# Entry
Amino acid sequence: MQPPASPAASPGPGAPAGSELLRWQWREVQVPCLVAAWILVASLAKIVFHLSRKVTSVVPESCLLILLGLGLGGIVLAVAKKAEYQLEPNMFFLFLLPPIVLDSGYFMPSRLFFNNIGAILTYAVVGTLWNSFATGVALWGLHQAGLMDPGVEAGLMDFLLFGSLISAVDPVAVLAVFEEVHVNETLFIIVFGESLLNDAVTVGFVLPAGAVQGVQLFCGAGPSTHPCHGLCEGVSFFLVSLGGTAVGLLFAFLLALITRFTKRVRIIEPLFVFLLAYVAYLAAEMVSLSSILAVTFCGICCKKYVEANISQKSRTTVKYTMKTLASSSETIIFMFLGISAVDTSKWAWDTTLVLGTLLFILLFRAVGVVLQTCVLNRFRLIPLDRIDQVVMSYGGLRGAVAFALVILLDGAKVKAKDYFVATTIVVVFFTVIVQGLTIKPLVTWLKVKRSDHHKPTLNEELHEHAFDHILAAVEDIVGHHGYHYWRDKWEQFDKKYLSQLLMRKSAYRLRDEIWDVYYKLNIRDAISFVDQGGHVLSAAKLSLPSMPSRTSMSESSVTNLLRESGSGACLDLQVIDTVRSRRDKEDAVMHHVLRGSLYKPRRRYKASYSRHFISPDKQERQDKEIFRQNMKRRLETFKSTKHNVCSSKSKARLKEKGRKKKGISLTSDSPNGKTQRNVPWQEAAPVLVMVSSDEEESNSSETEREDDEGIVFIARATDEVLQGKKTPSSLDVCPSPCIIPPSPTLAEKELPWKGDQADLAVYVSSETTKIVPVDMQKAWNQSISSLESIASPPGIETGPQHKRFACPVLEEQPQSASQAMPEQSSCFQFPSHVSKSSRSQSDSSPDGTEQQELQPLMAAEEPSRILPSMEPRWLIQFNRASQL
Amino acid sequence: MTSEAGACPLVGGASLCACARGLAHGGGAGAGWPFAEPPLLLTGACRCPVRPGTARSGAEQSGARLGGPARAAAMGSRASTLLRDEEIEEIKKETGFSHSQITRLYSRFTSLDKGENGTLSREDFQRIPELAINPLGDRIINAFFPEGEDQVNFRGFMRTLAHFRPIEDNEKSKDQNGPEPLNSRSNKLHFAFRLYDLDKDDKISRDELLQVLRMMVGVNISDEQLGSIADRTIQEADQDGDSAISFAEFVKVLEKVDVEQKMSIRFLH
# Structure
């Protein structure tokens, strides 16, 4: 891709001199501009190709790109009268190849890769060596036989060199074609793995030999010294490949280690991934080791740790950036291959050479594959059958690597370079276009086992894990240290040392594949659920234990929720659900509790369930909590019936609410609960002296430990009021039917404060005034004042208080409330066990079970979470109400 | 060599009882049935008391007749030479292992058999160091033992191992009428299934699943998380709504998994 100015766009000197301000600065931007232009062209071409599904389903994209390149090259040639924009080896190796290799290494299914590592290595090393020598020697034979044009001045060494560069299967081409063919994964990984790893062979032979940068071991030597150089090759091959791998592993280690410490600089996490992988590539290149191997192994090995360390967003970024880069590189490579082919100045055609090469590479590959498979099958658990062998032979596509390598040859040393270039181009075109086009029908015709992609399921993951353990155990029993034995060993080593060293503590702790799958499935379901508006589907069918309410939500509810309360913060489905269900319930609950004068709210149950579904981890603790609270409540009920202290309790609760806001943590079991318990009753004396907020708080802080539920309900109720305005339409949805009572939704609409804000607000206050006993009112006001003293300037407070006392009692109010009740119960499906338990405990409530059912059950921990944010609103709401 | 045979009752255990052999064949026929109780029972059931005399005679024969390669493979474990040809033939027929595989495994069997009584006990298995750290190790060891037994003879040992033999091409095309081989897909699956199904009610209950999960995942996963994983797993698989995974459901959820490959190991030839 030399960027000389094309005539169409070379206006530098000819720019109008009219205005200095608007100087035409083509030269400065020429290079990047051309690069960008080419990328743009290639990308646009892709769009065009994919306009027709029919075409792309038959013709691989790589073919189309090459053809496009040919066309563009022809145009450029016609316009510029000389070939421009060639695929330059440096450009190719330094910029275009690394992204593709990194992408394939990073997303390599490592398990599959290592499962088949034996076969892959065999094909990559033995196969490639065999192909190189066989092809080279055979061509040399043709030459010796005088079948070639005399212009082809090449000795055995030249042919061997050519053989080795032409026989390496190309990862880019293989990837491009096989990804569209969808053969089964074993077959794919073998061909693809081979194409990646045989680079070491090619580079190990060609580059040192390579006639390029003055290291002309190979080409300068005559055939006579061949054996000696064969030895050199052997050494250099191992050096190159093992060295490249080592560099890759080193950088993988570094990369993993670095990402361990990026917690505070999340934003550059992806950068490290790309940077270090690229540096690995360059480092290997620098010392002329196999850079492809370096990047491949860097990608394969770092992935596990890097993925565990970086954030979810970084993971996505890495994934997409990598795919984007690789895809555009690939596009450009194929396009430039096409463009380069039109440059006839580099060509020298010899039919015998071209046909001979084509024949030999096909023939020898097939022979090599069959022979090696014969040997390999003796060691393979699942043998490769004939059909696999055919596909493997036929899938040996050559590509840009070979082309770049042949361009790299030094024409001075390799006299026949021009012939080789032409032959390589033909071979590449033939394999990519002809074989690429026909491999799909072939695969279909041979009925090669295809890969079936399906979503991973938890069962599969779980059972496959079990299988692994079983197999490892059986190998131990059989006493045969096979693959599973070593895998098991490696996993233990990894767990003990590597992961500890390379993973963040937090990541390490959470790392478990089964859990990962579970987590991902949940996320996926949640996303698809939200995406699809909740109608359908997998999410709805599988009612997830952790998200119980989801299944039951109707479509409208989700969409409404998203629309109406869907601020950015609330996009998480679970959060929305939770908030809503709680709200709905509490709205009604607060109303009725106040009206019905202080029955013990039973909300804890409910809350604990919704809690559960926010974070399942808390479940156990909550179960205990519920149990404890349950027992406590029984005691209290017992007490309250004796002492008739309902009102005092509620008052205490109100106070607590204020206190809570201060963020005092609740400890649910206080050893001396009984004595503390007494405090509220004493305060409950009919005439309540106004206590300073400080005192109140101190009192309540004590009581609060025992019954924190009061706090809960009030806070929620407020919350509900606010939410009710926001999401009126969502009210008729039952948020969490599985576990708990759908919100008393219809009723809520009728609840005083639901409809018109101003009016209803008044109702609320009036109702409260009417129903709540005097002492309760005082307590209420007190608590409000204490609240406000905390949360808002005290000045506001006094007014409302007085007004509230003066509020007239409206007679209609109770009626509307009672009307609401039946409706509530009608849409209310309380789980039988819960309602039963609440009933059994509700002996102190005169109104019967209805009200109690409406009371949401709340987790002890809930209030502390919700309250802080709610307070100000709460205050506002009530202030408004009382002012009116 | 043969003179020592009498000291090794295993031969008795293996060659002994016609009853066991007959049963074994019957069991083989019944093995097409996925719930492989019959073969299992046989494994342990054929432990008729053996008189040393009969054992010795059988052993002498086998010692005399055992082929060269088998003997070579058995070097170092005297007992393995005691495997009779008929024995091998029967095991071969039942399990599909090759002659050399059987002798090789027999030498392994005897090397595991520290008690030298021709059967393996749980302790023998537990002595394998890697097995001790295998999370499912105990379950797998248990799978070798027929119900209610705490000894397993070579026959039973091989029968269990046969589940892990890869399916060969020529077996695939075999007629469907014959007894289902032990290494068939459904037998492989059933082996795995039995590891979960502790109470043998042909259902994996939530508790059973949880136990296995607990063994397989790290300690870092909390019980609640495990619980939700188990719930979800069951939900995924459960089709009849009984909150448990039956064998049919188990097969169904794994239908896309290449069980033939993932439940096979390569036995050395």
Summary: The mean pLDDT of chain A is 65.
